[in-house]
Specification:
This protein has 387 residues and is mainly alpha-helical. It contains nine helices and four strands, in the order αααααααβαββαβ. It has a domain of 187 residues. It has a four-stranded antiparallel β-sheet with strand order 2-3-1-4, covered by helices on one side. The longest helix has 63 residues. About 11% of the residues have low confidence.
């Protein structure tokens, strides 16, 4: 019995010792030893001396990324080119639909959809390439800023360790840490310097050059994205195809001569593409007209002393941007001209646009057309329905 008790106590003691040893080891791993102020001084001075070299390496890294940015720009422009082609084919498809040419509409619709798919895939690829470039540019700047921040944090830990060791402020160790701090601050200020005019700015600091390079990169990427975004063009092409399909679904209106003599309610589809009306102020040259025609694909409604009135399938934002880019002013803010008129299919159907054009009335407040007195039947009531 005593032998068993001794053996049990022995095992218990060994287990307790092993547990305590493991706990102490874990505690030692969790709590790193305090830094040596002397070593901190050496490390900070070495980091300060290498700071210019590290920042210049970041600048060179941004220069190498220029090639990636050029590839992104090429793919983004490819996506926009494909979208423009899709838009042109979609316009032809819609034209075929208005002429009830189903076979031609089907062929052109497929071609437009294929181009739109290619444009979307090219845009996805370009977006991925652009995001990767943005990520590398950001990482380059953050790497340098992190290196400076680490040196500053290291100094703070060195001062704390010296204080915990009871070293006085006038000790050699603390004095060395202060010298290291001053040297780091001076080096950071030097690297942030924009240079001097007397030296033709050849003495500009590497950190200043890095920040400038990063800003130029960011601006370049933003400009590429804004100038090559195919989203609006793809939406327009998609709307054209849907409008064409709707036209074919409603079929083409029969000729008036084929109608029954007695009026009946028979509704037909009309060209209800979204349009925008704008007025270009007087002074439009032939070259201005040529450039605007290429950008807006517009039709001239009227030329007045106050300006040229146009209608375009482009959005109001696109018209305003085109006018700004060509240095032209607008008589009034571009406004939508979108009317769907469904009336009984008789010789009396009418739509008097001039009765409400710029009159302050609502865009769909239409007056019935004035009918001649020699009609032998009672004209049916005009029906205007908004859809």
């Amino acid at each position: 019995m005593k032998q068993k008790l001794k053996r049990y106590l022995s095992v218990l003691c060994l287990g307790t010792f092993a547990f305590l040893f493991a706990g102490n080891l874990l505690a030692a791993q969790r709590t790193p030893p305090p830094p040596d102020p002397v070593q901190v001084n050496r490390d900070v001075r070495a980091g300060t001396q290498n700071l210019d070299r590290d920042v210049n390496a970041g600048v060179k890294n941004l220069q190498r990324l220029t090639n990636d940015a050029n590839k992104f720009e090429a793919e983004a422009k490819r996506a926009k080119t494909l979208a423009d082609k899709a838009d042109k084919v979609a316009q032809d498809a819609f034209d075929a639909a208005t002429k009830c040419d189903e076979a031609r509409f089907a062929r052109l619709s497929k071609q437009a959809n294929d181009l739109m798919d290619q444009a979307r895939k090219a845009k996805e690829k370009a977006d991925a390439m652009g995001n990767e470039v943005d990520k590398k540019v950001k990482e380059t700047a953050e790497r340098i800023n992190s290196r400076i921040s680490n040196l500053q944090n290291m100094l703070g830990q060195g001062f704390k360790a010296a204080k915990d060791q009871g070293l006085p402020d006038n000790s050699v160790t603390v004095g060395n840490l202060r010298d290291a701090q001053n040297a780091l601050n001076q080096e950071i200020a030097k690297q942030n310097s924009g240079g001097t005019k007397e030296n033709n700015f050849q003495d500009e600091g590497s950190l200043s050059r890095l920040n400038k390079a990063k800003n130029e990169f960011d601006n370049q990427m933003k400009k590429i994205r804004e100038g090559s975004d195919p989203t609006e063009t793809l939406q327009k092409a998609d709307q054209l195809l849907k409008a064409g399909a709707a036209w074919l679904e409603n079929r083409c209106p029969p000729k008036v001569g084929a109608l029954p003599k007695k009026p009946v309610d028979f509704f037909v589809a009309v060209n209800n593409q979204p349009q925008t009306v704008a007025c270009i102020s007087d002074g439009l040259t032939a070259e201005d007209s040529r450039r605007l025609k290429a950008m807006l694909n517009h039709a001239v409604l009227a030329s007045t002393p106050g300006g040229t009135l146009i209608r375009s399938p482009q959005s109001a934002e696109t018209i305003e941007r085109a006018a700004k880019e060509n240095g032209l002013s607008l008589c009034f803010k571009p406004e939508p001209d979108f009317c769907t008129i469904m009336t009984p299919l008789t010789p009396f159907r009418g739509h008097d646009h001039k009765a409400h054009e710029h009159s302050g009335r609502g865009p769909h407040e239409h007056d019935a057309s004035d009918l001649p007195l020699d009609w032998g039947v009672t004209p049916p009531e005009i029906v205007v329905r908004l859809e």
